[in-house]
Structures are given as C-alpha cells and as structure tokens.
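Researcher: Batch entry, complex prediction.
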Amino acid sequence: MGKKHLIDFVDISKSYHHNLVLDEFNLYIRENEFVTLLGPSGCGKTTTLRLLGGFEKPDKGQILFDGADITNVPANERKLNTVFQKYSLFPHMSIAENIAFGLKIAKKSDAYIKDKISYALKLVNLDGYENRSVDSLSGGQQQRIAIARAIVNEPKVLLLDEPLGALDLKLRQSMQYELMRLKDELGITFVYVTHDQEEALTMSDTIVVMNQGYIQQIGTPEGIYNEPENAFVADFIGHSNIIDGIMLHDELVEILGVPMPCVDKGFGINKPVDVVIRPEDVELVAPGSGKLHGTVISNLFKGVHYELEVRAAGYEWLVHTTKYYEVGQEVDLDVIPFNIQIMHKPESSDEKAVEIDE
Amino acid sequence: MNKRTGRLLAGPYLFWMIGFVILPLLFVFVYAFTNSDGNISLEAFRTIFTATNAKAIGLSLELGLLTTVICLLLAYPLAMILNGLKIKSQSFIVFIFMLPMWMNFMLRILAWKQLLNKNGVLNAFLSLLGLPGIDILNTPAAVVFGMVYDFLPFMLLPIYNAMSRIRQDWIEAARDLGAGNLLILVRIIFPLTLSGVISGIVMVFVPSLTSFAISQILGGGKVLLIGNVIEQDFMQGNQWNAGSSLSMILMIFVLLSMAIMNLFQHDEEGTQLW
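Model: Structure tokens for the complex:
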C-alpha cells in the first residue's frame, strides 16, 4: 500500500504477575488500514489493543502515534477510540446522551452535537433511536451504538475488541459488512481483535497472527491462508493436514516415506520440516493411480462438500471433496506440487510459540 | 397450589401484620384523636404546639440532617476506597465495618458514654499525650457522634453496593471518550451511585429523626429530641394522647422524607434497602 506508518509498536514488553504476555513486540500499522490481531485467547492480542488504547502501560518499549511517543499519554488524551467487547454503553444515559458523551467533553456546540448524533445513527442504521434507553436495545443494536459513540469523535484510529463475539452468526455476518462499509466511508484506520479466523479473513487488509506474545505471521488474508509460514498459523487458519516431512533436496520432500515433488527451495538437504496440505488440496483418485494408498474411515456431509478422514501411510488425512465416498472404500491420494507447503521446524525461543497445544 | 391453600399459607404473616403492625398503629391513631376521657377531640394536637415540643422537633430535624450529611461525607469516599481494593481484602474490610452491627446497640452507646466521659478513657489518653481533654458528653455533639457511629453502616452499605455494580469497562469507556478523573466521578460514578446514596440518606435520616435512646444516654437528658418527648409522654407523664399525636406528626415527617426520596429513586435493580 505504501502509505505512511500511523502507529508503531517498538520493542514492547508487558507481563502480568511474572507472566510474560508480550515479548519485544514490534508492529506497525499504516493509515486507513484494516488490521486484525488474530490468535487464541492469551496470545496477547487484547493486551496489544489495551496498550494502544492507553489502558495499560508497557514494561518496556515505546508506542508511537503519527511519529510522536504516546507511551505515557493517558487514554483520555489519545486521538483514538475503542469499541469494547461488552459494548459498555452508560446505562444511566439515553442513546443520544451516550453518543454525545465524548463530544460534550470536547465542548462542541449543541447544534454540532445534534447533527453528529443523527449522522452517526444513520451511519449505523438506527436513526430515530435517540431517546431510547440502553436496556431496550438488543445486543447487535447496542454494539452499533457503541460504534456510533466512538466514531462521532472522529478518531484517527478505531480500536475494536472482539466486538461481534457475543452476537449470533447471522448478525455477526451483517455486522461484518457494516464494519467494512464504515471503514470505506470514514476512511479511518481499524485495529480489530478477534479469535475468529473467518471474521479476520473476511474483513481485514492485514492480518497479524499471534500466539503466546509473539507475532507468528503478518500478511494479507490470502497470503496467510495460502502460505502459512509455520505449523501454528496453518493450524489456526482453517483445518489442515500438518505432517512431519524431510526435505530431500530442492523441490522434493519425503512425506510418510513417500517422496513428493513440491515447489519450495532453499531448505537444505535432508532437513526435517513441517508440511502443510489443505484438506481441499488433497485429491482422491482411483486406487493405483495416486502416490499414497488409503481407506476412507469417516464421511461427514458439510453442505458444500463432504469432509472425509482417510487413513493412508499411518496418517489420518482430512480431505474435502464434492464426490461421495463410502466408508471403507479404498482410494489413492495425490497432491499437486504447488499445493504442498513446506515450513521450517521451530528452532529459536521465539518460534517455540508455534507449537500447537490442543 | 390452588388459591385457597395459597391464602392459608399467607395466614400467619397476615396475623403478624394485623397484630403487630396495623393494630398498634390504629391504637396510636385512636389515642391521637381522642382526649383523656376517650371522646373524639383534637385536644391532643392542640397541647403539643408548645415551645418545648417545637424546639424538640427542630432539634431532631437539625441533628438528623447533620448526622445524615456527616455519614454521607464519610461513607462515600470510604465506599470508593473499599471498592478499589483487591477482591479478597475487600469483603473482609466490609465485614469489619458490619461487625459492630451484630452487637446490641445500647451496649455500644453505653460504652461510648464511658469513653467520652470527662474522666473517661478518651480524655485519659489525650492527657497522656499532653493534649487538652474534650468534654462533649451531654451535648448535641455527643448525640450526633453517637448517631453517626451507629448509623454509618446503613449509609455505607447501599453506596458500596451501588458502587460495586459499576463495571470497570464503563469507566474505561468514559476515559476512552476523553473524560478525566473528575469528569468520570461527576458524570459516571456519581449518577450510577445516586440510588444508593438516596437509600443511605433515608436509612440514616429516618432513624436519626426518631432516635431517643442515643440522645438519652449520650445527651444525659439535656438534649431533648422528639423521640425523648414522646417517650416521656408515654412513660412518665402518662399523656398517651399527646404522645400519640406527636407520634403522628413524626410519622408524617418520616413518610414525607421517604416520599421525597422516592421521587429520585429510579433503580430497578434493588440497590435500595427498603
């Protein structure tokens, strides 16, 4: 995108009760970018957001905003607003008063505030709700008011902490579209925290996958999904077959005792690696014509596809296919070289966080 | 359960209500509107409009208000401090504040009489430090002191209750929207604890207004509150009619203060204790 950095995390470390949550964390966020911090609970994504919001102070490191150090600037003086996980609307105020809260503190004129309230309510499709009480709104409506309350202040950055976590699937999807529309209409930077990989893939310009306080991968949704850099990312973003392999030499990897051509180079000779193959990339072919021979051991109908488990060469492969196979049927598996992802085994302490504990 | 057994179950409670609440109130009512011969008259009301009684009512209102204000000024910051403590020590400290309530309050007031005595423990301690002694026993100040001591938990509990219901994320949201500490206190914390404050005011003001034992013991018979006048009418002067009519007046004050508080009370979550 080539836009300038708006936010820079520089060597941030943070621990709670001797529990290291972020370790030498570095990240930049560009202007007008939709960045999602994605990871399992306890990965440090919410802490990152709270550091940016000003609700926590780092033990070490700096946070730069527009080039200026804001590490010690209190939350109420930062030019960004947060949409909280629990909506956090003030229960003793009407919807209009909630939205006006920040504007009144900024000493805007009554006319300006009135305009802003009706503009914001239109933006979140809730016009006419000015005088309703917070209790009379559903979760989704409250969430939209929380967004309206944040954006009327015209922040440069909107921080969203799992804002759709409490909503049901349908509502969550329509709110995802609304958020993307808002981002385009307002032209501000969104920093979004979630543990829901689908949500992250749908909305983001950039996804930051985190685990145990370390960044695992930064990239576009397509990049993260198609080319995970390590086993953790591969496993966290969708289901995958992650298999131990040995890189025999460039463009040839041995999986479960079978050499398979691939497209990766530069891993060295006879190196142990992790191999990732997406379930939709495993092809089922007639017995005798594939590289691995196996038996179907389960078959689940998932709507668009069948989800099969196939035992082959001692490994239970997850396979997505649109054709029907009987349980017990003999099949051969094949994978085209392009769809085989080779990844380094974790070596340094940083990379320990890629180990998947389930 | 059908309707009849339901009614039967309410029986003992109904009996209690009629026997110990409604009948006594009716007696008071009847005595207030009759004279000593048992005839209907407003004589009792006429006799109570004396300078002594008016002074007693005025003093009761004054000391009651003073007690309420002092309790509020002490309890509100205390509730804030308690609410800010770590969860474990929090309940223990609230327990400490509640502990005296489980002791007979007459005993506690009698203990204060000994402590506040001119030759009592407090002055002995002060003179030990070379400080001048204080002699507040048998003054309105001692009565107010006793009432504050006795009724502070009733102010503290509802405020603390309301305060502990304020979610941390509301505070953070306010801060996020640009509010500093003072604005958070004025715009968020205070409005959200208002119902607790009002409950506390009623819970302290009403018993202070009607108290008579504290003023008798710590006031040494020199501080005459409306409660003391009523008590004298019944126990010493044998003037049940005048006592009853004064009680009626007092009840009107109590109901009036509760009605005024009710106007401000919009809490559906049950912060109020009455």
